[in-house]
Each structure stands twice: as C-alpha cells, then as structure tokens.
Amino acid sequence: MSIKIIIISKLEETRLKVAAALESEDIYIAGQFKDGASALSRIESVDPDIVIMMLDTDESDVFATSERIYMNRPSSVVMLITKNMDVDVLQRAMKAGIRHVIPWKRESQYLIENVRTVYNEESSHRDALKGEQSLGHTSKVITVFGSKGGSGKTTIAVNLAVNLAKKKKKVALIDLDLQYGDANIFLNLETNDTLDELIQGYADFDIDTIRNYMKTHSSGVHILIAPKSPEYAEFITREHVEKLINIIRPYYDYLIIDVSASFDDITILAIDSSNLILMVTGLDVSILRNSKISLKVLESIKQISKVKLVINRDSKGSISVSDVEKILQCPIAAVIPSDWKTVGTALNTGIPFVQNVKRTRAGAAIDALTKEVIEFRPVIEKKEEE
C-alpha cells in the first residue's frame, strides 16, 4: 500500500513541515503547491488518494478548490488541517465537501496515523458504493488463544490481522493480554494511548473516543494496546471489555482479539463473544497436554463448536500433525512451519513477516489461514424449543 498525497499551503514553510512530518514508507508525496490553481493539473494527472489543504491565509481558495475536487475528482479525498477549529470553519468545510478536518499538530506520528485512518475509511466507503457492504454488516470476532505462554499466539494474531488488511478488509486488533500484552512491539508501535488509559479517562465511551486511543498500523489495522504495566490491568473489568467489543464490532470486517493464556474473566468473555476461536498449539507433549485440558474447559462452557486449531512451529519431529488430530480431536485451520529466521527478524524489526516482499514459508501458512478465516461462516445455533 502506498498512499499518494498532494499538499497545498500558501506558506512554503508549512508545506515543508507537513511533508517532513509525513515521512513514511507507506506514504508518497506526489507534489506540493501554494494554491489550488497550480495544484489542479497535478491532481488530474496523478489521482492522489488524499489532498491535504492547510487553512493558513487564503480561505476562499481553500474552500473553492476543495469543492472543485469534491465535484470533479471524488476519488481524491480532501483533508483539511487548521489551527482554528471553530463552528464556522467546520460548517464551511462541510459545504465544500470536506469530510475530514483535524487540528494542526507538528507530531509526525499524529499526522501519519490520521492520514492512514482517512485512507482506510475512504477505501471502505468506496467498497460500500460498489455494494460490497451493507448496513446490517457486523464483523467476525476471532479470538486467538494459546494454552501456554510462548505458544506464538501473538505472532499469529498480528500477522493474521495485517494479512486481512492487505486483502482490503477493515480490521481491528485488541490486545487483551492485559498483564503482559506486547502486540504493539510486533507492529513497532508506541505504547502511549493504551486500553487502561481509555477506561480510566472515560466513564462512558463511544466509537469516536475508542478510535482516539487506537493506533493505526501502516497496513491499516487499528489496534488497542494492552496496559504498559501489569498493575494497570485491574482497572479493566469484564463489563468494560463487553461494552468495548459491542461498540467496535459493527465498524470492522474483522475484530481480532489476542488474549492471555489463562481462563480469566476477560479471556472467557472474549471467547464467548467470538464467532471463531483459533487455539494455538504445538508438537510437544507439554503444550498438547495443556491444549487437551483447555478443550475440555471450552467444552464445559459450551464453546467447543467454535474452536479450530493452529499448529505452530511444525518441525516434522517425533509428533506429527496427524498425531495432534488424534490426540485433540479438533479441526485444524492451519499448520505454521518452524521458521525461526523469518519470525525472529519480524519481531526484532517490528515488521510483520506477511509484509515481506520475499515469500516465506511462514507467510504462505498465514495466507492459508487467512483464506480459511475469510471463508469461515459462523454457525448459528438454533434456540431450543420450549
């Protein structure tokens, strides 16, 4: 994904600051212009995804140019940056067809995340215009669970989320491993604006509030990051998480939840809220024993029908995949090969291995898992007749 940007601002200094703040591998600055008249031919030729306009000196030019783009080049979205967020500015922006207005901040990450969010929202809007979405749309909720620490569940959750986003799906990832969650490390994202800060900051929250605390990865995945330290987990209750899931799910195609390796209240709630549970297991006696116990627990709470296995680190050793099928008697969604070089490099760089230009065995396995997830249809259980 490369997001094409045109920058328009009367002041050269401002143009340069915006361009510098947007330095990122997934963003391409296709041109910088002092006014709309000089920018229109470039917009016509490169068809940018986003036209960033600064409301600095000439307001009439900004709104006239925006309206012209809105009417004649709807595939290019105008994003207005202004130091003055008063009602008059917002009303004039709406009349000119501008749907995205943000305050001017010099922080690079703030601007990049807003650009990515606008790009992904508009991509979903274009899909809807093609008839690919419906008002009754609700996301598939997928919980990735491992019965033992170090099973590789976070690696799988993160790469699955990014791979779904690559396939133009709108994806949210929630790290509900509240004490030791580190999904943000796999995505090279900072730990400010975490889940506990959202909960502590707002007695009541809606989708807009939640999105303010979400980080946007370059793939388009929106992630809610786990608390920075284990003691903050106590601020997050089952009721908070239930409300969070119910608010988020209508706005995404897929909601991926990474949970802890224990059956605490939060994990059980996530499992109960899910359409699909991906249980990560392996090919050693210890993890298979834990997986067997976990499956019995899931059966006791009537969640076993949702479970599919992901066998991680297949090394063709003494225990085979067919042995796992016999021992656990559960359907297998995917087998991820042991590929320490690929996985280790991805973790150390913070770049998910499904984003590698070079095809890897681990990446191919996640592709197969992604296909399985997309084709999966939740079972609608029939209510018992009275």
What does this structure look like?
There is one protein chain. By secondary structure, this protein is α/β, with parallel strands linked by helices. It is built from 15 helices and 13 strands. The chain has helices spanning about 10-20, 35-45, 60-70, 85-95, 110-130, 155-165, 185, 195-200, 205-210, 240-250, 265-275, 285-300, 320-330, 340-350, 360-375, and strands at about 5-10, 25-35, 50-55, 75-80, 100-105, 140-145, 170-175, 215, 220-225, 255-260, 275-280, 305-315, 330-335. The strands form 2 sheets. Strands 8-9-7-10-6-11-12-13 form an 8-stranded mixed β-sheet, sandwiched between helices. The chain has a 5-stranded parallel β-sheet with strand order 2-1-3-4-5, sandwiched between helices. About 40% of the residues are buried.
Task: Give a short synopsis of this structure.
The chain is α/β, with parallel strands linked by helices and 386 residues long.
Q: Domain count, please report it.
A: 2
Question: Which CATH C-level class of the largest domain is it?
Answer: Alpha Beta
CATH topology value of the largest domain? Rossmann fold
> Which word captures the global form?
elongated
The name of the CATH architecture of the largest domain is 3-Layer(aba) Sandwich
Helix content: 40-55%
- N-to-C series of helices and strands: EHEHEHEHEHEHEHHHEEHEHEHEHEHH
Q: Radius of gyration, Cα only, in angstroms?
A: 23 Å
CATH superfamily of the largest domain: P-loop containing nucleotide triphosphate hydrolases
Largest pleated sheet: 8 strands, mixed
Low-confidence stretches: 382-386
Main sheet strand line-up: 8-9-7-10-6-11-12-13
